[in-house]
Amino acid sequence: MVSDIPPGLASTQAFNVLIEDIKKTLDEMEACRPYFTKQKLLWEFSWHNFQTMLDFFGCIVIILQIILIFLAFEYADAVWYESLIAEVVFLLFLFIGNVTFKLWDSKIKHKEIIERTKFITKYLEDCSKISKWDEKNYPNLCSPLSPSIVLQPTLRDGKLVNVPWALLVRGDCVQLRPGQPIPAKCRSYQDNEEDVKNFEYNEVYSPFPDKNPAVDIRQCEPLQHIYCVLEETPYIRNLKVFVQKSCKRPTSSVEKERYLLFIMTMEHFGIPIAVAILYAVNLVRYFYFSKSIGTCSWIDLFLMQPVAATLPLTPIVFPILWRLMNAAGLAWILALFYTARKQQFTDDPFEAAAVSPHPHLTLFAKYEALKKYCMRNFRGRGPSPFRTQNLLHTFGRVTALCCLDKKGILSWPNPTAEKIFFLTTGRHDRENERKKRHKQGTEYGTQVEVLDLTHDITSPFRLQFDDQSWKNYVSNLKPLGLGILLNTCNSETQEHYSHFSSHIACESMKDKYSVPVINRRCASQCFKRHLNTDDVTRMLSVCTRWCLCEVAFQIGFSREVKASYAMESQISAFRHLAQNNREQNIQASYLPKTKFPFPHVVAVSAKENYRGDHHMFTQGTGEMVADSCVDFWDGADSIPLTHADRKKILDFYHRTSLTSYCTAFGYRPLDRPMSPKISEWYLEIPTDCEAIYRKYRTNSPLSWDGPGKLAEENQSNDSAFGNIVDIRPIESVSDVFGAQSNQTFLGMVTMQYQAKIDMVQMVEQLDKACIRFVHFSKENELRSRVFSEKMGLESGWNCHISLGEEPEEDTLQDLYCSNGSALDRSTENLTSNSGKMPRNISNLSGSSGNNIEMSQVKFEDDISVHCVGDGYTDDEGRGSKMSLCNKEDSRRCTSSIRATSSSSLLATSETNLSRSQSHITESTDQSGANVPFDMHNRAKLPKGIKNIRPHIENVDNVPLLVSLFTDCTPDVTEEMIQIMQDYGEIVCVIGSSANPQNAGAFMKGDASLAVEPLYPQLCQASPSFEIPHLQNGPSPVEVSRRLNSLPCSLSFHRDELSSLLQLILESRHLISCFQNVMQFWTCCCCSITFMHIISALVMLPPILSSGQGLWLCFVVVPLLSVSLMGLPTDPDILKVPTEKLPKNLSKELIGFILWCYCGKFLPSMLIVVLLYALCTMGFCWDIVLKSRTLAPNVTYEQCIYVYPLEKGNSVPDNWSQPELELAWFKAQHYACFFFVLYIVVISSSFVCRDKHFWQKSPLCNGLWILMSTLVLLFHGIYMSLTLYDLENEDTMYKPPFSVIPLSIWLIAFIWPLVLIAFNEAIKRNEVRSKFRLQKRARLEFGTKLGMNSPF
After folding, report:
1. Which of residues 1095 and 836 earns the better pLDDT score?
2. What is the average pLDDT across 281-298?
3. I want to staple 290 with a disulfide (CB 3.0 to 4.6 A). Which of 53, 295, 1024, 1308 is the partner?
């Protein structure tokens, strides 16, 4: 290490700085965000707040109820009114308790993210004491770049290690590599203060050398890394986002439903209507019907009855119970999750996975973990956010599962080989053919062989050949396998290649027309827009450097073969695009928005230890490797490359590079060694290199035994070139370029990311559950569609949308009008000379442009290549010309691209507009495209995030139904999630915990899951990092995961993602139970109010007292409602589409609600009122019959309606008279008992809402059986104790039990049987309606037929 470089911070120092900055930020945020402010208090009790459980209206109602009861206590003189003071005290206690709980709950919600952050700081303090990390515990410095992971080379403990982004702190000395974004504000480390450079966050370090474009091959000095000192802690930026947006999370649909039922329906709608009706009716009764029919005292009519009727509609018990239910439900989900992490389930990946509850997990979670999390959640200290982001509510109603990252989460972290391409002559006697060819000067056709490989779904690297006859080509594959082991998967080459990739990342930024520069915009602007590193040139440059050891192993090599060679030097070369073909490159790049790696090659010079021979193995992009080769290896000899052969190579390369990663390989034996000094500089090749290559190429094939001899086991003392004359090492630029210009083409390997089988299964299961899996892909449309097919997602028409913005009009005009009419001239040159391909295009791929569309890669007139079997065969005399724009069409390119929502395609005679970014020329049909997917997207879908809302409002809702969004950035991803939520979607976000750019999306979703991705490996032989021993603390990756997942509901490793469906199943069940609880509770409370209104309308005395109302609302209804939570989990609930809250209540919906719920309760309430009237009437006539024995001076001569009329009076007495109050109170208790009995019977129909009792008995709910029994028992005890206490009072009339007519008991106990049958009939209609709605919802879920359907 350089002496003037500082040693950096120690790990302990870094922990202390991170803790200090976090605490300082929390103090500042708390000071700026005080909780007890007037505005926040008003909002917490506002009826506009969907999350409130007690608003100002409810508080006012409770206070008025307390006042009315107290007034009744002051003015009444009856015996039973003496208990009203206890009711006043009890209500006052409940009111104060609810207000206090509301304030406490709001404070806990406000400080939830802060408390979680404080818990993280304690975790960091513990880690700082025990963590002992070395280089092996950090990811490798040369690890392949992944957009799911952000790492930064940093000096820690005097060593350069790859530190996760979240662990970077103020004062860290970081190594900035060319082309990388700046992680935070920093300054360069310089001894001289005048030379210090300052960098801002998200700038791109681009030390461009001040050089003119190369006109000849030249030596290029590598761009150097610099060391900078961070002036701020990067994590603080995300922490502020977490704290500021924590209380702005979207309200769950479950909370909205609760708000609709309890706040809007019961409070704001029910209470005013009930009070208005009661006061209107009682005023009429008191002033107009009191003399004719009879009435009650003014205290009962105007004070007690309104209180008793509105008391069930006020939130006196539900708020606290609701929080406890949610805490217990979330505790259940967390217990299942953390239990499932410890269990391993090995299901056959090829079988259709069925999600069902695991009994052993259920029992374990019930008795061990449930009690552990319940109170922690209630107190705001649980492992998952409870109030700001309720995982239970989201999982129970989720409609869209959005994944932000692909690599390491949806796919394996490393791509694996899919195809091996090589050329062969297909002749047995190759030596005779080669001699005949040179003597006659004729060319015979070559054949393309493509061998397919299949990835083992259970292993990240394991492969096998599909065709069992692949061994017939083992001689063709041996040189390629040896090159893989000595160059691609050689640990000695990784550091050099890492530096080279950084260099060409900056080189590609020089030219704004260069393909790797994203959409021709400045890279610094790209990073300011928070583009992911997968869209950066640097990522495109290194995409060909992945582990291919398994290919070599399958060919027959072992890892020990590398010991037979000693590496001498490494050669790296690159070049830019040609100036005169930039316009056609613009067309090819803008229309499909495809990206190709920056043209480059890397080679390694190795010495064979036994024979002392020198060899050069090359790999790189297809165009540069093809230009560097003069012949190809056909398994036995080297065959000169023709123009047609080069076209075949480039055709395959360009086609496969559209959707996968393609690497070409070359080889050449060296007559002398290469100097190690070559590794210290790079070779820059000019764009116009045709003459240079021609100068250094030999005119005839090399006279050597061929690369196949190197891979054979037998050893020979013969040199590949005979006697070596010149033993001076190769070290000049011309010698190096000459060595590279005469190579043998070995073949190409295409690689692709493979979807993990558990994700494929999960997508299938989510589809069955009507949960849309949405992938926000950062890649372009073509690559994204290929991977979506591997995932099992739809990728045809109407199935994907590009969120990338169209280039601005001025930019397009500038691009297409640059260099005058160069486009016209290039078109003329291409189509002239009798249709023959110009040499600079047919021969040199650099001049042909590395952005040629796959449909435009055609052959000359005299050579046509078509698919025959596994390869391509050329036959003379057949072919077609290239399809390019003519002059008139080229002038319309700009306007045509702007006019269509997707990219257009270049046709033969005119510019045909396509409805997709994918395009294909007229001369190339779909079968000949050799692409494993349909290139067309014939639906008219919006392009760009700004066009999504207008399309949904004015056209159709297809953008809400697609499963793939391409060209995504963090900003547009957040905006699209917001659009989905605005239109009723419940979104759960899944993203990498190692990607700090996911912070905004994590805060935007209804719930967010942070997944620690699988880290890519340099080679399968070396892991990404080693986990430290337990005594040395958690790994840096684990600490980073904790920090980045601070606002997330759950955080876990990628291998633990399999339990997600189980959690959704349990959450759906619990939310369904919550829905039953809320609906049953609401119906019971409204039924009590309804009984009061009916009894007032029929001129009866109040049917229930305020004390009985408190008993029902505080004990009976809560116990019966909560008992509905005990239903066992039904696995079929995943097949039921999630219900969405309607924005507007239609007449049909209101009628359905009235029929299903009022039909179940209102008949029973009418029966209760009828029984109450009959019971009161029976008591009345009994009083008349026994009036002479009750008191010598009181005689009741008749009963008017239900009121006794005293002899000599014209006005009937009211039941609140001291001598009659016991009979009235008994009648109220009998009515209360009947009400309790009937709601117990009605609750049986709420146990299994979707099945009849003969299909699934309510007895399957053990909790309901227990609670129903306890409710009846408790109510019997309550009624007995109350009546026994009143029996001891000295009253005139004590009605005996025998006075109640037998008809009352017959009606009372026969009705439950009728009620069961009646409710089942209503349920039958309800089930049918729900089935139709579910069938329609599933049809809508699987249908994407917008108004622009082509079918």
Report:
1. 1095
2. 78
3. 295
Pairwise CA distance, residues 802 & 901, whole Å: 10
Helix (H, G, I), strand (E, B) or coil at 52: coil
User: How many CB atoms are located within 10 Å of the residue 78 CB?
Assistant: 19
CA distance 956 to 1344: 9
DSSP 3-state assignment of 970? helix
Beta strand extents in 869-945 (DSSP E only): 871-876
**CB–CB of 394/1071 below 8 Å?**
no
Q: Which of 998, 236, 231, 214 is nearest to 576 (CA)?
A: 214
Percent of the residues in the chain that have a pLDDT greater than 90, as a whole number:
37
The whole-angstrom separation of Cα 124 and Cα 104 is 28
Which residues have a Cβ under 8 Å from the Cβ of 869 and sit 6 or more positions away? none
* DSSP-assigned letters across all residues of 996-1007: GGGHHHHHHSSE
Distance CA 408, CA 1010 (A): 13
Residue 1007 has pLDDT above 60, yes or no: yes
Tokens at 83, concatenated: 């208990």
CA distance 814 to 340: 58
432: how many CB neighbours lie within 10 A of its CB?
A: 10
CA atoms 285, 289, 295, 298: torsion sign: positive
* Residue 695, CB-side half-sphere exposure with 13 Å CA sphere: 10
Calpha distance 664→415 (Å, rounded): 16
In tens, the pLDDT along 795-817 reads 766 788 999 876 554 444 444 44
pLDDT band at 587 (very low <50, low <70, confident <90, very high): very low
Q: How far apart are CA 405 and CA 177, in angstroms?
A: 24
The residues near 256 (Cβ < 8 Å, ≥ 6 apart) are 50, 1141
Dist. CA 285–CA 278, nearest whole Å: 10
Task: Please report, as a single letter, which amino acid is at residue 532.
Answer: N
For 111-175, the DSSP string reads THHHHHHHHHHHHHHHHHHH----GGGSPPTTPPP-TT--EEEEEETTEEEEEEGGG--TT-EEE
pLDDT (mean) for 1043-1066: 89
Report DSSP letters for 829-842, one per residue.
HHH-STTPPPHHHH
**708 close to 635: Cβ distance less than 8 angstroms:** yes
For 485, which DSSP code? I
For the residues of 71-105, what is the DSSP string, one character each? HHHHH--SSGGGGHHHHHHHHHHHHHHHHHHHHHH
**Is 1193 exposed, middle or buried (CB count within 10 Å of its CB: 0-12, 13-18, 19+)?**
exposed
Amino acid (one-letter) located at 601? V
Nearest to 918 by CA among 900, 903, 901: 903
Amino acid at 981: Q
Count of H helices and E strands in the chain? 46, 29
CB 540 within 8 A of CB 595: yes
Query: Quick count: other Cβ atoms within 10 Å of Cβ 521?
Result: 15
- Contact yes or no for 1109/1088 (Cβ under 8 A): yes
Judge contact between 123 and 115, C-beta under 8 A: no
> For 90-93, which contacts have Cβ atoms below 8 Å and span 24 or more sequence positions?
90/1110, 91/62, 91/65, 91/66, 91/316, 91/1110, 92/66
Distance set, CA 256 to CA 27, 640, 984, 1088 (Å):
33, 74, 12, 24
The packing angle between helices 112-130 and 11-32, to 10°, is: 170
329-359 tens-digit pLDDT: 999 999 888 877 765 544 444 454 555 555 4
Given a cut of 60, whether residue 721 has pLDDT beyond it is no
Which of 502, 561, 508, 535 shows the shortest CA–CA distance to 142? 502
**Burial classification of residue 1139, based on how many CB atoms lie within 10 Å of its CB (0-12 exposed, 13-18 middle, 19 or more buried):** middle
